[in-house]
Write a structure and sequence with these properties.
The protein is of the alpha+beta class and 279 residues long. The protein has two domains: 106 residues, Ubiquitin Conjugating Enzyme (Roll); 139 residues, 2-Layer Sandwich (Ribosomal Protein S5, domain 2). The strands form two sheets. Strands 5, 6, 7, 8, 9 and 10 form a six-stranded antiparallel beta sheet that branches. It has a four-stranded antiparallel beta sheet with strand order 1-2-3-4. Strand 6 and strand 7 form a beta hairpin. Helix 2 runs antiparallel to helix 3, helix 2 packs parallel to helix 7 and helix 7 runs parallel beside helix 8. It is globular, with a radius of gyration of 20 Å.
Length: 279
């Protein structure tokens, strides 16, 4: 309670109470310029065990924040938590995020590159449940080519692919697909195999994340892809980090049904992924 009162007085109108009973709060953070170019919204839920035994549950929301930017920022926040176990950390998180935004403002000339997501864009044929088959605009497989080429093991076996149960809400459908992987080449092969399926290839978004544990270096090789659904890949990877899963690729396909779902779409993406991981 003392922490919340302090944060409220420090950040004033940038601090917002979303739900007092559930301890859900939101803070808008900018880069400190007179006309901020870079800003994002940090939403936190303080669980009953915070700060003594549990970390805050958080979301980072900004149109420009996706892929590697999201992963790097999330990793920074988790490091702060681990360095300050048992202590109140929201202020440290906010100032770390502000530091990153100021660095971006100082190092970049143009405005943030904001790619419209499907939910923000006008949908021409929103009433059709399945869009006509069309190639993925930014082929995620291209991104894996250089990593996969480093693997010297030739044509590796295609891992088994497990398909989770679909979730449908207001005519949007979400389905997760999972495969065990130990090399980037296997990630590439699984993605290629999935995109051979005309229905999966026609999904509005195919969001994915993978984590591979490298025994020799004792580190994780991990990456994620939003496929146009801003920050969804980073959230998916964050879920995998929380569940401490390794040597696995998760892909969540979403077929947009013409009705905006707002934040619920992230809940469905995570629930799909969680179900398939637990199975």
């Amino acid at each position: 309670i003392d922490e919340i009162e302090a944060l409220s007085s420090i950040y004033g109108e940038d601090w917002c109470v979303v739900d007092e009973d559930e301890k859900i709060y939101c803070i808008k953070i900018g880069d400190c310029l007179d006309q901020p170019k870079w800003s994002l919204c940090l939403q936190v839920i303080l669980p009953p065990g915070y700060p003594a035994a549990e970390p805050p549950i958080y979301q980072l929301n900004a149109p420009w924040l996706r892929g590697q930017d999201y992963v790097q920022l999330a990793n920074s926040l988790e490091e702060i938590y681990l360095q300050n176990l048992g202590e109140s950390i929201i202020y440290l998180w906010v100032e770390k995020i502000r530091e990153v935004l100021i660095e971006k403002a100082q190092s970049s000339g143009p405005e943030p590159d904001i790619k419209k997501t499907t939910e923000e864009a006008d949908e021409a044929d929103g009433d059709d449940f399945l869009l006509e088959y069309q190639p993925i605009q930014e082929d995620p497989i291209q991104m894996l080519n250089c990593l996969a080429s480093e693997s010297q093991e030739g044509d590796e076996e295609l891992p088994p692919i497990h398909h989770g149960n679909p979730i449908t809400d207001r005519r949007s459908t979400f389905q997760a697909h999972l495969a065990p992987v130990v090399t980037p080449r296997q990630v590439k092969r699984v993605l290629e195999k999935l995109y051979e399926n005309k229905k999966i290839a026609s999904a509005t978004h195919n969001i994915y994340a993978y984590r591979i544990f490298c025994e020799d270096k004792q580190t994780f090789l991990q990456d994620c892809e939003d496929d146009g659904e801003t920050a969804a890949g980073g959230r998916l990877l964050h879920l995998m980090q929380i569940l401490n899963v390794q040597n696995v690729l998760v892909v969540v396909s979403r077929w947009y049904g013409g009705i905006l779902l707002g934040p619920d779409r992230f809940k469905h993406i995570n629930n799909c992924a969680r179900s398939v991981l637990v199975e």
